[in-house]
Design brief:
Length: about 500
C-alpha cells in the first residue's frame, strides 16, 4: 500500500494518457469516514488518500480524464489551491510512472472470442497456464464425497440434506483408493496435491476416512507428491477418538457453525427438527482447543433470514474461535432463503460493521482472522486463480461415493456435468465439459472484463452462475453485487490496518 508523497519530477503531462481510459474497469475509489483509498485493479495496488487527493482522483474519474475540466471542478467546487492541485498531480504521475496507478489491462488482449470459438491466443508460458492445458485436465485437488448421508437436515443444503439427489450411500475403501489413484495419474507433473474429505457428513464413514488417509499418504510419498488433507464436518461426531486422529494425522479441518443459537438452529436442525447448536458448539470448542486454536476454520452461512450476519460472525469469535468466515448462501432465486437485491444495503452495512469491529478487536490484541477479508495484494494468487478462481472442472474435481466424477462438489448428482469414473480417464464428451469450465474465465464472462473486482473474485462461483442463469459464463447478478460489496470492505479493512501500523 502506498501513501502519496510529493515529488514534482513526475512527467508534467502524464494525464494525456487518461483520455479514453476506462476508469470503471481499472480503478476503484472508496471512502468511509476519514479514510479513503484508490485501488488500481491491474497492478493490484492499494493507495491511501488524504481528502484533497481523494477529491482530485474522483474529479479525474468524473471528468473521464479531462484534466482541464477536473481542475476547474477542483478550483470551483472544492476550492483547492492551484499549487496543491499541481503537487498532487505530480504525486499521481509518479505512481503512474511506477506502474502502480491508472494502469492498463495487458492480459485482455491475450484472451478473446471470435464468434463462438476461442481465438488463437498468446501462450502464457508458466506452470499455471490455463488455456493450453484446458483440454487435457491436470487435476491437483479432489473433493471426496465419503458419505452421501448426514446427521443434520440443513435447510439450505445444496446436497439435498446429504444424498445429492441420489441415495444415502457411503464410499467404499476400494472406490476411495481408485479416486486417489485417479488424482495421482491426472496430477501429472504437479508436485502439490490436495484431498478434501467431504459429505454429507464424512465422519459417518470414519473407518474409511482413516484407511484412506493412510493410503493417500503412502502413495503420495511413493510418487514424491506433497499432500494436503482437509476434512469438512458439522462437528457432531468429533469425539476424543476422531479428534486425536485428525490432530495426529495433521488434517486441516473446516467446522460448520452458523452463528447465534436461533440462527444456527433454524437452518441446521437434527433429523427430528431439534436444534443442534448446543452440542455443535461444545464439540467445536473442545476440538479447536485440542490443536491450540490453529489449523481450522469455522465456516458459517448467512441467508435472507439473518441479513444481520455481522452479529453471527462476532458471536463465533466470542465463543473463542479465531479463524472464521460467514459466507453468503448459494441458492436458486426461487428458494425462500435466497438473498435478493433488496437485501444489499443491509449486507453492505454488515460488512462495514465487521470491518470496523474486527479492527477494534485487533487493536485490543485479540486474534481474529476473517477468511473473506484476507487479501494478499503483494504475493496474491497465481495468474490462473486470478483468471479462473477455484479451477473447478479442470484442476479441481469431486467424486461421489460410487466413483463418478463431477466438476466440483456443488455439481455432484447433475448428470449433464458428469465427467466419467475414477477408474478411467477424462476423454470425449467429458473432456469437452472440462474445456467449457476452463474457458469460463473472466475474459469470457459477461461483464467481468469491465468490472474492477474481476481479479479478486475471478468471475464468481460457477455453481452460482449456473443456478441463476443456466450458463457458467453469465455471472449471477446477486453474486456479483455481493462480491463487490465484500471486496470493497475487505480493501477498507486492509487500509484500516495499514493506517494503524503507520
Amino acid at each position: 500500500m502506498t501513501t502519496m508523497k510529493s515529488d514534482a519530477s513526475a512527467n508534467r503531462y502524464w494525464w494525456t494518457d487518461l483520455q479514453g481510459y476506462d476508469f470503471t474497469a481499472h480503478i476503484l475509489t472508496f471512502a468511509c469516514g476519514d479514510l479513503a483509498f484508490v485501488y488500481d485493479v491491474n497492478s493490484n495496488s492499494l493507495h491511501r488518500l488524504d481528502r484533497p487527493a481523494q477529491q482530485i482522483v474522483e474529479a479525474l474519474i468524473d471528468n473521464r480524464g479531462d484534466v482541464n475540466a477536473a481542475t476547474s471542478q477542483l478550483l470551483c467546487e472544492y476550492q483547492l489551491s492551484s499549487e496543491l492541485i499541481e503537487e498532487i498531480f505530480a504525486e499521481l504521475g509518479e505512481l503512474k510512472k511506477a506502474g502502480l496507478l491508472f494502469t492498463k489491462d495487458d492480459l485482455a488482449r491475450r484472451y478473446s472470442y471470435q464468434g463462438s470459438e476461442l481465438a488463437k491466443v498468446e501462450r502464457i508460458d508458466t506452470e499455471e497456464e490455463i488455456v493450453s492445458e484446458a483440454y487435457k485436465p491436470i487435476v491437483k485437488a479432489l473433493c471426496m464425497h465419503i458419505a452421501h448421508d448426514c446427521n443434520l437436515r440443513c435447510t439450505y443444503c445444496f446436497a439435498g440434506t446429504g444424498p445429492f439427489g441420489g441415495d444415502r450411500s457411503l464410499m467404499s475403501l476400494e472406490t476411495g483408493q481408485e479416486a486417489i489413484e485417479f488424482l495421482l495419474r491426472h496430477s501429472q507433473g504437479r508436485r502439490h496435491i490436495e484431498i478434501d474429505f467431504f459429505g454429507g457428513e464424512p465422519l459417518l464413514n470414519f473407518a474409511v476416512v482413516k484407511d484412506l488417509v493412510a493410503y493417500a499418504k503412502k502413495r503420495a510419498a511413493e510418487e514424491e507428491k506433497v499432500l494436503k488433507l482437509t476434512l469438512t464436518t458439522n462437528g457432531l461426531l468429533l469425539d476424543d477418538e476422531t479428534t486425536r486422529f485428525l490432530n495426529e494425522e495433521g488434517l486441516s479441518v473446516v467446522l460448520s457453525l452458523d452463528g447465534r443459537p436461533n440462527v444456527h438452529d433454524a437452518m441446521r436442525p437434527y433429523i427430528d427438527g431439534q436444534g443442534s447448536y448446543e452440542e455443535v458448539v461444545e464439540n467445536l470448542q473442545k476440538f479447536a482447543q485440542s490443536r491450540q486454536n490453529q489449523d481450522y476454520y469455522v465456516r458459517g452461512t448467512y441467508t435472507r433470514h439473518n441479513p444481520d450476519f455481522a452479529a453471527d460472525a462476532l458471536h463465533i469469535h466470542d465463543l473463542g474461535f479465531v479463524h472464521l468466515s460467514v459466507e453468503p448462501v448459494v441458492a436458486s432465486p426461487q428458494d425462500g432463503y435466497a438473498l435478493t437485491m433488496e437485501d444489499l444495503p443491509q449486507i453492505d452495512e454488515q460488512y462495514r460493521i465487521l470491518a470496523e469491529e474486527i479492527h477494534r478487536r485487533k487493536q485490543k490484541g485479540e486474534e481474529l482472522n476473517f477468511f473473506h477479508f484476507q487479501l494478499d495484494l503483494a504475493e496474491g494468487p497465481c495468474l490462473a486463480k486470478r483468471l479462473s478462481g477455484c479451477g473447478a472442472g479442470f484442476e479441481y474435481m469431486a467424486v461421489d461415493p460410487k466413483g463418478d466424477l463431477y466438476p466440483c462438489h456443488q455439481f455432484v448428482g447433475q448428470e449433464k456435468f458428469k465427467l466419467g469414473h475414477v477408474s478411467g480417464t477424462i476423454e470425449g464428451q467429458s473432456q469437452e465439459v472440462c474445456r467449457v469450465f476452463a474457458d469460463a474465465h473472466i475474459y469470457h464472462k459477461q461483464g467481468c472484463p469491465s468490472c474492477w473486482a474481476r481479479f479478486l473474485c475471478s468471475g464468481g462461483c460457477h455453481a452460482n452462475n449456473e443456478a441463476e442463469s443456466g450458463d457458467l459464463r453469465i455471472p449471477s447478478k446477486i453474486g456479483c453485487e455481493l462480491a463487490r460489496i465484500r471486496l470493497k470492505w475487505a480493501l477498507y479493512a486492509k487500509v484500516l490496518m495499514e493506517a494503524e501500523a503507520q
